[in-house]
Amino acid sequence: MCYNVFMAGGLIESFSGIRGIYGQELTGDLAYKYGMVYHHIFHKPGAILVVAGDSRKSTSVLKKYFIRSFQDCGAKKIFDLGVVPIQVAELAIIKFKAQGGVYISASHNEPEFNGWKLLKQDGALFYPRQVDRLIRAVHQAGANNFKSANNRQIATVIDKHQQAIQAYIRFISVSLGKQAMAKIKQANFKIIFDPNGGAAISVIKLFCQALNIQAKIVNSRLGQFGRKVEPNVESLGYLSAKLNDDYLFAAGFDCDADRVEFVLPAQSNFAKEMGVVLNGNYVLALACDARLAGTKNQIVVTNDVTSYLVRDVIKKYQAKIKEVEVGEMVVVKAMGKYQSVIGGEGSNGGIIVSPIKCRDGLMSIALILKMLAIHGQSLSEILAEYPKYYSSHNKVVCQSDKAIDARQRLIDYFKNKGYKIRTTGGITGGAKALLDINTYTWWRQSKTEPGVFRIYCESDDKNKVDELARETIQIFNKL
User: Fold this and answer.
1) pLDDT at 8
2) Does the active-site annotation cover 107?
3) Judging by DSSP bridges, how do beta strands 77-83 and 156-159 pair with one another?
């Protein structure tokens, strides 16, 4: 099934949320309209809803518009969580028995951007079909659609900031278990945190207190961004020089703290070979290794471009991988179907731990610390024991109307060569050609970057990766 991505100027409306430059296409009036349509479609008067967001200056303004829209629709109570990570907001909806809510953020986009994600009763984002319905209704709605509820009472707005954070810290403690918590506290780990003025700041101190972490926090003033918002090699590379023998690693977050990147000491053997910023597939493998300890026969849901490293690591727990199309909510939906305790997308370093329905950067750190504490090893020592996989990530230009044909032609080419073919997500989803059990080439039209076609290759043999990437790109160009 193909769902629309609506674009008007700099405004993007899609299954992953609404975002744009605040004050241009993205305005308070648009937020109010979305709040009204969301409530009319998915809720009845008397609903209990949550509002929260990241640390951008425009977040507090947009939040007022959403609160007013919910009040005008007849909501009974509105729990205001203030600035918290998105995973804290999702958990709060469950813990406080709310019927849904909104999280205001543009995630990894720069500070002039903002946006929002509307949430369901289980804390999750809406599935693509539901988002498609919502966006279309917003586009079709006129002024007469926005009438206040009859005989309404103004909903009470209740501050739940501290209670939400405390509930999240308890969730981490319970997820780790008493034995792991005790060992982590005894280890007295030292970590550098770079929340970059984002929502993680609201949680880091309590998180570190709970786990007895000695923390050095940089860029720690809420709403003040000392680097590019997106955490990656370019924005976080400077942290490697700040690490010495005392610090395990540095952790850099995006603005809503669902995403974290790990920076290793440059002098470590692993960093010398694989780079100072830990690949997201290793993060997911470590997290699964920690979370699955003591379990058997679990199903771990990943997208179809997650490294086979994760498959190899979880075999000792008799766990199996279920591959689905790229997309956080696709993974979340499948996790519910298979009752998975953990899943994620190694291609972006995102881990998802039930019952939270989004990526969780702080939980990633907690699970990696569990691995270190239980095994009494350094991060580099554990990573050195994992299988090594090499990858090649490429973007090529492809007109949207040509992408489906290009996808099929690549399938036909590799099928004729005798490769096994796997597909996900229908005619616009991913396609993978397997050379052997550890080597594949994968391709898909981007659903977030118009005109981009992605080609990824992976193998435990670097030469195979380079050859397969070169071949796939050459065949694509001939098409």
Assistant:
1) 63
2) yes
3) parallel
